[in-house]
Amino acid sequence: MPLPFLIALIVVLALHYILAISTIYLLMKDMGIVKAMIPWNIVILLLPLIGPAAYLVYRQIAKKK
Fold first, then answer.
1. Is 5 left (phi over 0), alpha (psi -120 to 50) or beta?
2. Residue pLDDT, tens place only, 8-28
3. What is the pTM of this model?
């Protein structure tokens, strides 16, 4: 595996870890512990960078309503 690709992969996964933890914290703060948050947890954890971004966009839209 080429070194630049490996470094980029490490950076993306580290960024995903930070985003996932902070987004799940916001999710628990918004919803509490309910069954409705299980699908969001799965999306946030399994889709690197896209999962946390999707919840943050959804959160911004839901707050405006």
1. alpha
2. 999 999 998 898 888 888 888
3. 0.70
Structure tokens at 13: 């996964």
Place of tokens 């799940």: 24
CA-based end-to-end distance of the chain: 47
Yes or no: say if 51 and 43 are a contact pair by the CB < 8 Å rule: yes
According to DSSP, residue 29 is labeled H
Q: What is the dihedral of CA 36, 15, 57, 40, to 10 degrees?
A: -10
SS in 3 state form for 35-52? CCHHHHHHHHHHCCCHHH
- Torsion angle in degrees (nearest 10) through CA of 49, 8, 22, 39: 30
